[in-house]
Amino acid sequence: MHGGIPTLVAGIRALLMQTLHPGAMAGVHDWSRYREDPLGRLSGTIQWLVTVTFADTAVAVAESSRVGRFHNRVVGEYADARGVVRPYAAGDAELLSWVHVVFTDAFLTCHQLWGGVIPGGADGYVREWAKAGELVGVRDAPRSEAELRGQLAAVRDAGTLKSDERVAEAVRFIRNPPLRRGMMPAYRVLFAGAVASIPREYREMLGLRRSPLPVVLGSRLVLRFVGAVLGTESTSEVAARARIARLGSEAHSA
User: Fold this and answer.
1) 19-36: b or e for each residue (b if 16 or more CB lie within 10 Å)?
2) What values do phi and psi take at 212, rounded to 5?
């Protein structure tokens, strides 16, 4: 799944959903350099994702430890949905859980919309990716699609999520990132597809409306074009499969 083209839409959806937790949004607002160096910030996230997905265990653990050390420095205060000022740290269990859940939800949902068959099914993906959450400190990561949807709904129903000017600013940036002009038409279609994939109650909090145009189909066409240009197989996945095959061959020879 993480080597597939639908991850392009999933990344947009995950970024949008993350903004709705005021603690997570405060960390991004106070510490992230996304306005000055959006690609630099994104590359750090992608580095962790690719490493944990495709590298060996030792490298995945080391990369997650690096992320954890960065989280230790990210602290501050924020006003929650009830206006109460609360301290936050990027390593807080609540914030780590939110980021993990919306990330997993985004990648699963977008693959279900635009990808192929999931080996092991949705439950298999959620269960396997729970390990990635545990490596950065997530407690009680969901182990099935039902648990995933349940944890997401529990945060919403608890009244934790919040929409304010910080969220609106982040949404505006995600809608119109500083990409090359020639890339923007395709990006706008994928952004609209990401918005369409988000349930209505979250779209309303984000101040977004689903396009009346067939953007799910449009996103599928854009993703097919991107796949035709860039290839539909991740080079990291190819390298990982080659490593696994080599290890299997060595074990068999031994």
Assistant:
1) bbbbbbbbbbbeeeebee
2) -75, -10
Phi-psi region of 83 (alpha: psi -120 to 50; beta: other; left: phi over 0): left
Which helix (H) or strand (E) element contains residue 95?
Answer: helix 93-114
- In this structure, the chain runs to a length of 254
Contact status, residue 30 vs residue 76, Cβ threshold 8 Å: yes
Mean pLDDT of 82-91: 91
Listed in sequence order, the DSSP H helices in 6-92 are: 7-18, 22-31, 38-54, 57-71
Angle (CA) 105-46-243 rounded to 5° is 100
DSSP 107-165: HHHHHHHHS-PPTTHHHHHHHHHHHHHHHTT-SS---SHHHHHHHHHHHHHTT-----H
Radius of gyration of the chain (CA): 19
Mean pLDDT of the chain: 91
Confidence (pTM): 0.91
| Residue 154 in this model has a pLDDT that exceeds 70 | yes
- Reduced to 3 states (helix: H, G, I; strand: E, B; else coil), residue 77 is strand
Give the whole-angstrom CA distance, residue 170 versus residue 236.
Answer: 30
